[in-house]
Amino acid sequence: MVKKFARFEEIILVLTLALMVLLIFGQVIGRYVFQTAPSWTEELARYIHIFQVWIGASYAVKLRQHIRVEAFITRLHGTPRKIFEGLGVLIWFFISLFLAVFGTSLVLASFQHGQVTPALQIPIWIPYLAIPIGGAGMAIRLIQQLVDIWRGDFAKPESEEIIG
């Protein structure tokens, strides 16, 4: 199930990137060749990019590719390292949980107010939905990482493997 979800994320990220490139390309052609371009393409590309960022953040947690400061942790081994790694992941988990919970509140509030986007005229809660989806995805992946850390079978970052 987890592998299928990761594969689904990869497919979504690649397809939305291709769609976003096509929309922006169409926008550029429209502006410079036809001297006019529909405004909805720019808005849709923006909302696609927002979803890409939030889904990509969750996917990057799975790959352990987020930027982190490792100057101190790389010097530790065994239980002290597990504690510091676990503490860092736990703090990050609470931040992503905060994003998921309050992102959901934002979605529900915008749903109740009925606000729509300027060009596409879609409900604004749809683009806002990226926040709780990304936050929840990161929170789930961080729980998995925390379990891996305490099992002791988490992979070291590539930069550390080369040096150490």
Number of helices: 6
Main sheet overview: none
- Coarse morphology: elongated
Question: Which ranges are low-confidence, i.e. pLDDT below 50, for 5 or more consecutive residues?
Answer: 159-164
Q: Got a strand count?
A: 0
End-to-end distance: 34 Å
Q: Spell out the helices and strands N to C.
A: HHHHHH
Plain-language structure description:
The chain has 164 residues and is mostly helical. It has one domain (2-163). It is 75% helix and 0% strand. The protein contains 6 helices and no strands. The protein has helices at residues 2-32, 39-63, 79-113, 125-128, 130-151, 158-163. Helix 1 packs antiparallel against helix 2 (39-63), helix 2 packs parallel to helix 5 and helix 3 (79-113) packs antiparallel against helix 5. The longest helix has 35 residues, at 79-113. The protein is elongated and about 65 Å long. The two termini are 34 Å apart. Residues 159-164 have low confidence and may be disordered.
Tag the structure with descriptive keywords:
single chain, 164 residues, mainly alpha, 6 helices
